[in-house]
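Hi support team,

I'm opening this ticket because the web form for multi-chain structure prediction keeps timing out on my end. I have pasted the exact lines I submitted so you can reproduce it. The total is 674 residues across two entries, so I didn't expect it to be a heavy job. Is there a limit I'm missing, or should I split the entries? Thanks in advance, R.K.
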Amino acid sequence: MSLTSILLHQALNGLVLGSFYALVALGYTMIFGVIKLLNFAHGDLYMAGGFVALLVLSAISGIVGAGWPGIFLAMLLAMIAVGCLGVVIERIAYHPMLGAPRLSILITALAVSLVLENTVLALTNGQYAAFQTSLGFGGVAIGGLFITYSEMVLVGMAALLMVTLELFVTRTQYGRAMRAVAVDTDMCALLGINVPTVIGVTFFIGSALAAAAGTMAGAYYGSLWYFMGFLIGLKAFTAAVIGGIGSIPGAMLGGLVLGMLESFGTQIPGIGSQWKDVFSFVVLILVLVFKPTGLLGRSEQERM
Amino acid sequence: MNRFGRLAVMAAMACAIAGPAFAQGTIKIGVEVPTTGAEATYGRDMANAVVLAQDEINKAGGVLGKKLTMVIGDDACDPQQAVNAASKLVSQHVLAVVGGYCSGATLPTLKIYGDAHVPFVITASNSTKLIPANPGNAFMINSTGDQQATKAVAFLAGKGAKTLAIVNEGDAYSQDLANLTRADWTKAGHKVVAYETASSGQQDYSAIVTAIRAAKPDAVFWTAYYADGALLIRQLRQAGYRGIIAVGDGSNSTKLFAIAGAAAEGVFCFTNPTAQFLPAAKAFIKAYKARFGSNPGPYAPLTYDGMKLVAWAMTKAGSTASAKVIAALKTADGVQWLTGPIRFTKHNTLARSNFIVLEDRNNAWVRADK
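Hello R.K., no limit was hit. The queue was backed up. Here is the completed structure from your submission:
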């Protein structure tokens, strides 16, 4: 394999990985935007999304098959189900804590994460579940680069979801309300914006995006595990911080940057693949030290 | 009924329940396997095999006139939880322990059983790191990692491979096998062109896949467990790697096919003989299926033998005293077990190599080395 071919491949890998990170990071950053909470249970919603999609897919694969149509349908239902789960979690666990000190709600988020992980652990006995699809390994070769159809659809789906989100946030009334709540919650309440509803919508969208990422990861990698949300949760947090936490374009950019950094970082001679995770967290520390507001974040100004 | 009467009835009931046990006494055997966690499939399977052996022994009159009972200690393939499980078994006064799946989890328990003078028959764990850590009470009835490495090197070289990429997961089992294979492969005059360590539970192996594709090895050897191995195989094939892929005995699972799908076609697996490839195991497979409704997994026969070996040693020693049972185990010989004869080296490891090679054809294992 030539050097250019390796670089092209790593760019593609980084793009796929970055898409997952970006989708999960979006939820992180949106929720931080409206209630200033680092929702540590977010990675587990990604995991839950994967499992819901697997259940749906195994139920409907007899009718529509386990190809892309089935996966899309499963993904849609998983997004709705996990979106609702996110809203329920917000109502039960976070809403009563909104007036409490920041640390209390942060600990609540950790507890929610443990509850979700251990529920799935109990249901699956901690075993890997195979996410069986009828997707082959077909693809097209462009120059020295071989791109599978799955990779194309996956990156395309992620891009579509992000564009839709961007349109929602910038062009709709709810989107405007969300941005307003992020800037000043009290003033929004005074002006007659239904703040709890806006927070609910934010949780729904954030959780649904995580579920979409979980479904795509399941279909792409072929397996699910109760603990799969932990590491991606940390990575998504890193991505959100790199991009500037609270900023939606920042989360997208941060996800892609982190995906690329990991992808290329592990190819530097002398740094093996075992350093992959170390690499991304070193970057997190560097960003926190030298540009705490992230690439696109601005301190104490408009957050979303 | 007054209070006194009720007490009398309860006492009578307690006697009725405890009666038979008191009359005969029981021999409590500990079973240390992962029944939760990623490797739970193997652990449950091993526990089932112990149940089968126990019932057969008890039906034939037990050991020294006593019935065998078993207590399961779940090590979850985790060193910390394994220590807890071992302490729990010891505190329940088990007279012997059978099991041990993940070498990394088995390693720290050796000292606990050693300090408590409990004979420990290790039925699956086979890292050579266990050998120096053995206080003398543990016996390994699965062939060890060095024998697997020898088999792997001979087989892959026989397939015409000259360059090899080795991928492990940094735990006691897979790192041991990877290092032994690297040493043997280099000694055989071939080249290891990539030696990678993955972190367990990560989904994305693209960095390793690219490193392997850049190194262009004739063969790739995954030395760790099936769940992550399946992901690596899938991503290797997806990226267009066309060379030989081989996996170690930790990846001998039909779940490998479920996760990797068509990508696992043609993958070679070095393993101790599983039930379907043991001529003596026909009755065992039938009994196992009738009892548990599924086929016995890769470590069921060895674990079944492990339980029977403990019973055999106690009978031979004429006692359950640990020193006598250990002495009997040391001289074990002359019995044709399900998995073949068991004799131990001076390090208490199996005195022969039992490794065979399997190949995935249409998502089923077939023998590849005959």
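A quick check on our side: Residues 3-24 of chain B form the longest helix (22 residues). Let us know if the file doesn't open in your viewer.
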